[in-house]
Amino acid sequence: MSSASSSNQASKSKAKANKGELAWWQLSLLGIGCTIGTGYFLGSGIGIKIAGPSMVASFLIAAAGTYIVFHLLAKMTGEDPQEGSFCYYAGKAYGKWAGFGSGWNYWGSKILIMGSQLTALGLMTQFWFPKVPLWIFAAVYAVLAIAVVLLGTKGFDKVENILAVTKTAAIFMFIILAAAALFGWIHGGSDARPGWPDGWQSFAPGGYRGFWSSLIYAFYAYGGIETIGLMSMQLKKKEEASKAGSVMLIGLTVIYVISIGLVTFMVAHNAISEKESPFVTALKSYDLAFFPHVFNAAIVTAGFSTMTASLFAVTNLLVTLAKDCDAPKLFERKLKFRELPLPSLALATAGIAASIVTALLLPGKIYAYITTAAGIMQMYNWGFIIVSAIKVLQLKATDKTFAAIGLALLLAAVIGVVLESDIRWGFFISLALSGIIAVVTLVMQKRIWNKQHTKKQA
């Protein structure tokens, strides 16, 4: 094929890709289904335990910060859609080191998120089999997820959509049953039900420090919003990206606030455990023998779906990093059979194995530690998106103000973790991982990229 015909074909492909097929409301619904995960179903319980009813306010604050990140990423994607997305924008804004660091930080955060999801799936399965060690369930789900990736299931997207509906339906089922219980239509319930808070002490039993520390778990429940930001390039009208994001976040926030508010009304914050979904705990004392089993099964099914999707994402991300020379070329290789990037999958599997070993060594605190570390790494990623947008885009004064507020909220969420001793180890885990990435980035800068730059100039 001649270079001219190749160029014409590339232009046609780009025009077709830029045309998009999604309406704004479809992206909104897709975002709601993809964002809700085990971080909300189980991780929110850690925040409720620390902050009590003030966790509702944490979700409102996190919604504001999440919108700012989505808004800025959607603007960058709309102006310059790229396969590398926020990694590309970081490199465009600050150089090779930023794109490299952003990409590997995102890969590390995804590995932690998968570890958190595996642990959550194990904890929820222990609801039925309490005597089976946590690490066994984590290993079983990991093997099943790897098997799904190896099969290369063509209908995986359709299955994901069905399971997204399952997750949303589970939340609405809880809201309806909780409302029926409050109206007295369902027998049972605890006499020690806390009810609506009547002062600061009942609203925030953990005080200002507990409320502050809970922010990270509210932000974590909105995790995945950056992936939806990437999909804004598939909109029919790119200018409707902010509209889609606004509606999506309003929908998520309403669902989150109502359901978390009902939990804190029905059960005391100190009765919540990170080993059980707070929604199951809230309705456990009512005459609903079916609910814990049905709800738990829905969460396990949907959580496995999210974890498998994360494995797909992290495997393909490493291939993209290898193409951009930000990872060894080995990880770009694919098998002829099903075009699977086996080396990339193998590295992701090693990361998952580390999570399983950790679950074996620290069965009591592992979920809180990994979830906290994953939430902080997510804040690092979102911080990269904001500072990249400040440099890449010609922002108006309003957007610059929003960007500053967004950075302040992300920083507040990270600092809040340090204040709470029970979850502080999560901060150190994230710091260690980011430190390793920073050291590798520095070595690459001095020994490889500087030499390449000098050769280009010569």
Summarize the structure.
Helix content is 75%, strand content 0%. It is mostly helical and 458 residues long. It has a domain of 306 residues: Amino acid/polyamine transporter I (Up-down Bundle).
CATH superfamily of the domain at 21-107 and 163-288 and 365-457: Amino acid/polyamine transporter I
Strand content: under 5%
What is the CATH-assigned architecture of the domain at 21-107 and 163-288 and 365-457?
Up-down Bundle
**Helical content (DSSP H or I, runs of 4+):** over 70%
Helix and strand content put the structural class at mainly alpha
Q: What is the gyration radius calculated from CA atoms?
A: 22 Å
Largest β-sheet summary:
none
Calculate the terminal CA-CA distance, rounded to whole Å. Answer: 33 Å
* Strands, count: 0
Membrane topology: Multi-pass membrane protein
Subcellular location: Membrane
Pfam families: AA_permease (PF00324)
GO biological process, one term: transmembrane transport
